[in-house]
Amino acid sequence: MPQKLAFRMKLIPGFEGEYERRHREIWPELVTLLKETGIIDYQIFLDKETCSLFAFQIIEGDANSQDLGSTEIVQRWWKHMADIMETNPDNSPVSVDLPNVFDLQ
């Protein structure tokens, strides 16, 4: 059975358009890696009032995008995005896991 994962990240104010542009041009090799990992649905929503990003994934298997930080492509993507997001010292986005409190299926 697929699992669901949700987490929150934060943009630096003023970079909403740039964030969307970079994701429209997401690297094909990153998309391939995500799909090969078993991520069958990955959506990111923006709250423009707070610059908060809400990410949601449906995953087949045990891994998710949060487990890919040791890969070269993800490390390059983090570096590519670090100037417009709140990040940790390793350039990974600061993210907060969000527990599922309701699921209408």
TrEMBL record:
GO BP terms: rhamnose catabolic process
GO CC annotation: cytoplasm
SUPFAM superfamilies the UniProt entry points to: Dimeric alpha+beta barrel
InterPro entries, per database record: Dimeric_a/b-barrel, L-rhamnose_mutarotase, Rham/fucose_mutarotase
GO molecular function: L-rhamnose mutarotase activity
EC number(s) on file: 5.1.3.32
UniProt keyword list: Carbohydrate metabolism, Cytoplasm, Isomerase, Rhamnose metabolism
Highest taxon above the source species: Bacteria
Protein name: L-rhamnose mutarotase
Species of the source: Algoriphagus antarcticus
